[in-house]
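Quick board copy: two proteins, each given as sequence then tokens.
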Amino acid sequence: MMKKTIRALAALASAFAVLAAASAVSLAASPTLPEEPKINGGKKYTDVIDVVIDGNSAAAPDQVIIQDALDRAKHENGNEGTQVRITIKEGTYFIDSALWIYPDTHLILEDGAVIKRSITSEGTMLEGYIVSEAGTAAGSEISGYGGVHDIIIEGGTWDANAELCRTNFSNMMVLTHSQNVIIKNVTFQNSVNHMLNISGSNKVLVENCTFKDSQIYKGSDPDKEFYGNETSDEQKIERHLAIEAIHLDFMNKKGEGNSYTVLDGTPCKNITVRNCEFNNVFRGIGTHHPKSNNKGDADYATDYGNTFLFEKNTFTKVRSACISAYSFKNMTIRNNTADQVGMFCDFYDSFTTTISGNTVSGSYAPRDNYYRIQQQLLFINSGDVAISGNTLKSDGKNSANIKFYNSSDFRVDSNTLSGAETNCIYIEKTDKVVINNKSKDKANKYSTKGRNEVSMTDSSVTIGYDTFSKVLNVSKSAATISNCTFNGGYINLDKANKTTISGNTINMTDSGATACIVVNAPADSVTIKGNTLASASNHCIYANTVSGKTVDISGNTFNKTSKNLVTVVDVDTVNITGNTMNKISGYNVAISVTNSKANIKDNKISGATSQCIFMRNCTGTISGNTVSGSTHPIYMDQGTSATVTGNTVKNGGDNAIFADSVTGTTISNNTITDSGNCAIFMRGSKKLTISNNKITNTKAHGIYLENDNTGTVSNNTFTGVPEGKRRVRVTDDCVNITVTPADDTAIVTPAPTGSPTTPPTTSPSPKPTTKPDDQSSEGGTSGFINRLYSLVLGRPADQGGKDYWMSQVRNEGKTGADIAKGFLYSPEFLNKTMTDSEFLDILYNVFFDRAADQGGKDYWLGKLAGGMSKQDVIMGFINSTEWANVCLSYGIPSGGSGVPNKTVEPNAQVIAFARRLYETCLGRKADEAGLMDWATKLANMQITGTNAAHGFFFSDEFVGHNFDNGEYITRLYRTFMGREADQGGFDYWMGRFAAGASREEVFQGFAQSREFGEICASYGILR
């Protein structure tokens, strides 16, 4: 060993000043910054005694030489204003037991000076000595912050020599009950335990120090603090990761100081760690004692320490947490850098903390089988924490960038969070979390390998102004989500409690997602309002199996979606009000509600291809909505009981309001215009009330009731019901329907354009023996249907199918468009595999009776490519002049808006029907001009057989004969039945006259007869 000399030099004391720390970031938490140490109260020492240790020669071992120098301060104790300054020159100094440092000591190791534990030594390398006023060991006399004070430890290297001494489980440097301590420019290395242990101390600054190369302990934990009864190396090393390089604790735990330590619960206070480096250590800064491990006075359990600043430090290859805090208060953690770390912060029961401006990447690498990777970069089981302006990047091994657990009061904004395996932020059993909610300038930036960017369970969270590209998941939580933007992502609610989603813009493209907003089984209220929603792959809002209170969906704007805009299934109560909905693609629905109580009110809906509003097995109301442009704008079925009132329904592609098997439903005070078929169509429904509706411009009947409906129809108004149709059509199987006024059931007829006047000169022509419906596929209804089987389905008609469609035309008044859509929307056609080009070829042949021209075909191909549905394309063909011409040639109404550009000359059968009217009604021969006028109108479907008969029976000529009621009935029998009256029938109709029936009512009774339908069919005209 080299010889050393001790040389004492007198020198003037130099001034020592420490600058105050910068102000804290103004966030939710506003921690107090620590008061930094002031040596000698910030005043100059009146006397400085210099002691220099020089490695050139020595008269005693290093341990003795250094301790003798340190003892100078012990001997000077009581000499106020005196400091001992010890300078250790370059060299390596070995010690085999603890060095003791005393108050008012400045210990300086110059560059190249190393104090190293000998390979056989055990115990601490340096401890703050506690002395009494008499200068002897204090024992229980010194408590609080009354121990070593006003010391500076500066420069050099302290080496625990753990490579050769791994059974030494002692700390390197220990300060307890201390106050006003500065440790700067020191390197700590090669320890198996804490490098710097600061317990129960006040005003400590650790600055510009390096802590590196922690070593794995190979011995037996003497106090079983870390290992307990664990025996395997892997178990021990797992626990060993809890050893901090800088350990901060309170005086309530055995082993936190030397044998003279008083365990009085004194906490750390005013601790600053700044500009330090931590490299290849287990943990960086903090403590590993949760409350459950405390052994002492429970009064101190919530105050391990108060007022900490950790800033501008660098952490590299920290295998566990860079900063671990248990029951700390008032922490500021800012502008630190961490790379290849297991965790950045690990907090338990700590309060009032800001974490700002830090740059963190994880996880620790390289790593062996013993080094666990923590689940989160920030784990916080604490309260009142603000996390702002940090960059937290995981290498994919962390489950989350930030996790809050069993905590309260947080603000998270302006962070960049990326690379986590599952979540950027995960919140569990935590209240009052605010994620941004200030402005887009404070938005967090998210990027995760998993599906969720933010997840929460059993928590209350407020989120605002952030942008998401994946999932925001709310489980069993109360959340407020507002003013956020979702580019591809969506919101998933599972048992959410009192959650509000408002003012967000969601453009969801995730093909695996159910909807922009998914609501499953909330226990309490959910409000979705004022959002703008669009989904390229699925629904916009999907609510399923919601028990408890209500789901309110209001004031949202819905744009294009591939499926339903709003789908609700098994929800106790859903209110859908004041939304604007448009651009629904595909054969889908704007609002679909099943097995729920629903109030659908004041929505504006357009562009749905199937239904605007669909209800199945529901109760509730549909009121004040404006809906247009779908096949069935309002559709109810299978047990629904609803009030449908005050709605405006326009441009229904088929029936505007359709109901099948509903009960107790009221349809009243609605305005219905331009229906593609009937305004209101009811099937198999009970206890209906249909009243005070205003119906304008239907393609078929105003109201159609079939299949055993029951209820009342009253006081509705009708404008523009087509000739030959009824304002209210009630089929024979509806025996318990009351219609008021009864005239609403009459066939609508035009005023006759002229009256036959020429006396008859010949007898009626004989009835034709061949019915047009029995003709070949070249003509008539039969030919029309045969043609569709061939062109659409590519096969001959089967008899059952053909009979069905023939009945639809004969008995139900179906148009050519109705029949064509029935074929084109059939499963048999829809299941065919075909290109858009092949689809258009079929439409051209069906509706235009020709091959496609290239220009027209290119136009429709462009429409399909641009998103137009096939249903819309079909309607374009239906409304063409060409289709009107095709239907005219087969003697069937087109059902479209196109007008034929040609006139069909009446054939002999149609002329014979018109001639028959002259003979059976007027009892005379037809004049040629009148005959051809009526026959031409019948042939071109300008009027029906009923219209024509009405013109004859209510003509001036017929009325002028003043026939009595008996003659009136006789002529009705001849015209509508083709026979003389039977006595029973004659007596019935005479009884109707006696009861007050008008001739119009009796006329309509004959016109609706089965016999007249057969007569019209036999002559090839519309009934």
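And the next:
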Amino acid sequence: MVLAGLVAGFFWKLLMDRTLAGLDILDYFFPYRVYARQAVEHGRLPLWNPDIFGGAPFLANIQSSLLYPPTALFYVLSEPAAYNWSLLLHVFLGGLFTYLFARQSLRVGRAGALLSAVIFALGGFLGGQLDHLNQLSAAIWLPALLLCWDKAVSGRRLTYIPLGALVIALQFLAGHTQESYFMLVTLLLYAVFTTLLSARRRGLSAIPMNLIVAGALLAIGTGLSAAQLVPTAEMNSWGIRGNGLTYAEAANGSLKGTLLLNAILPPFWNRDLVTVPGNSEFLGYVSVAGLVLAAAALLYARQRHTLFFSLLAVAALVLALGPQEPAYPFLFRYLPGLNLFRVPARWLLVSSFSLAVLAGLGLNALLAAGPKRNWRPLSLLLVLAAALAAAGAHTQVLPPRSTIVTWTLFGLASLVLVFSAIRVFGPPPSGWRERLGEYERRQRRASAGFGAAAIGLVLVELWLGGQSLDYNHPTPSQVFTTPVDTPSFLQKQDQPFRILSVARDEYAPGIEAQVRQQFGHELSEADILDYLRDYKLRQILEPNTPMAEGLATLDGYDGGLLPLSRYVIFKDLLTGVPSAPDDRIRFVLKWLPNQALLSLANVRYVIMDAIGDKAANGVRYDLSSFVHLAPHVSKVSLQLNNPVRATSIGIVSAARGVVPLAADEPVGGVTLSDGQGNSRSVAISAAGPDFGTLPDPSLPPTHLTIARLDAPIDVRSLTVTVTANADLYVNGLALIDDGAGTAYSPLMVDGPEWPRVYSGDVKIYQNPAAMGPAFMVHDGRIVRSPEEAAGIMGSGDFDPASTATVEVNPQPPPSTSLLGRIVSKLRRLLPSQPFAVPASWSESTPPASADRVTVDAFAPEDMAFTTQSDADGFLLLSQSYYPGWQVTVDGQPQHPLAADVLFQAVRVPAGRHRVEFRFKPGSMQLGMALSLASVFACLAALLVTALLDRRKA
């Protein structure tokens, strides 16, 4: 009850209709939980997610935490309330498990155990990870895992074997494999340590028993979570981490050596440290008093566990530094699994837990009556630590002076407490030896007082340090529920379709005044800006926010096993700018990507910002995108949807020549046509006064050319040509009717005009060539890999509307990682027969009339279409190819194909046919079977071990 009250007191703001709304919450956990809830409400197990990355597995993504029991909170509460209660529940459980571990495994008194629980639950690591619900959910099981191991091997309580296996399963299902890896490494080290102690006490016979217990824990625990782990292992082999990470990728997110003091000491009055993106990963403080008590444990706690947790804390802190310490390259190469994860700073979980345990051991030792070493060794140790900190201060990013002063004051207070305890709880003075009973009663009262004082001192520290953390700066829950105009508009359009956002979020939203009026009296300026930032991310439909709105985007955000490796190849084709595998498209470019591939992916709407748009002479120019002309691409044509009368034209362009161009040198021209044989032409000069920059800042500055036409014309189309040996970029143009005082500025594209269908804080353009969720092509080019397909698609003459690249036996990328090799070997055990390509597939027969494809059903795991065609062809489905998709034509199973790098296809004969795609992954069925078998094994083990424990008792 005390611990529950402390958790509620620390997080009281989250109980007052406030919530956290960090980027990961808004972009990841909120959309995933909404998607899962909606699926469950419709009685569907969400196996597939069509809303991101062109379609991707949902349950197989372990970060979805779909099978983790506490996720059920999101099915009965609103998302903000469910998130808050999940945080409170897991913080409380983390403290409770730490208390039980300290009490029952380490034999620490109540005061010391409560101190350890308070430090771990309310300290910096868990407090800094509240934006990462899956990370928090996994981390809190560490003390429970160690407790179950101790009970099983040291206490000989066999019931704890199935209970420990359940803990292993729960921490896997929580959805953060990196924390699971840290915990299993910690368990392995702790198991070796306790086994050596047991072997020393009971002989070598203890070793086989401990090995059996360890094997049973891992086997049953892994089996219980197999419904999650098997699909996840399959997805890993098809995803971006099938081969692990490079050294540079794995080292990304290491604890900065310059922030070491800030990482291990509370951020008093230092909110700026936490608001720097990524710095919340660098929090692992346990309080100044906690560090002093941990130091006291080294001298006064006589348990061997003190040495173990001291070494563990130091090792984890060193690992958190990543490549800034010399051992990391060696460990990266030889420690299995280390190359699968980024952000080494997360080793702070292990160091902060170890320091919390040490602090409890230290307090327990200080409060124990009996002889102690005098104060000199501890003083020497603390002076040495202070000297090292002072010597290294010049290498540190020092916090504000108020923070340093507060560190010093709490350090002095904790020293007074510790040295007073050393004096009070020493051996009884000579005058009291005849009255030991009374002396012991006084010692117990003093022990209670000193314990309460130590816990109170730490609580005050953690409370003040937590004022800088996000949970003390929550945002109104309306940020998740306030209707937003852009998704509201798109939800009214006929689905299915995809969207893509390349909009920036640096604009001032129209609701700013309303937000300031509504929340200005209760939120600080920084918190109001955070609220507006989160609103804008929903407004520009930042991935993965469309998932929560029932909209599908081609882009996506994961940071884990996704995206699939095929998506990365397709993304680089689409943008023309190779980027990191998990980069979001809107961060790669700020203009319209490859139009043909957008149409192939059924992207019907593109969201852009108006930040770069400019006005001149009363005319506003749409500068959201640009067309690029060069000697090898010398002409671009734009067909308008409606005729526009023009007497003048304004052109925003930039040029870069092979040799320097003269300012008045013409580099190209624009020809306006009315579609009836009449045209007007104007020249584009090489340079002029700067008008702005292109959406790509690496390109030259733009200038504005305004030319009056020799006669008015009703423009139906316009053609831009380049005439010099140069690169010409046309950023925008305006057709001006000087007499009427009007102007029209279309989006610069090559082909049919993309109408602007929505204007507000952002702009939405409609792609008139989007091909729909499925369409027919009749020319199939057989390829052996997605890389070969990308080579064909990257050529200038490839038209995805009429031709498809087809892989008949798609395979995951070759893997050199241990997990990848295991999955590959298991895959070879499955019966498979390579598909032989019929000779007729090489024949390309165009249909006599247009193909028709109608959508009969479009659910995430079940899609059906009716095709009507005069010729054999391929039906392309704009969902990512992935094992587990089954396809039938008129009820007969057909061989699924991969098409155009990312998507799926099936061969369909001429005539009218019903084609169905269903997602039924074999990995899910295998995982469910293993989990079900493990449930029975676990229940049987509980029954048997309970009987054995009772008989032994």
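Board note added afterward: The longest strand covers residues 635-657.
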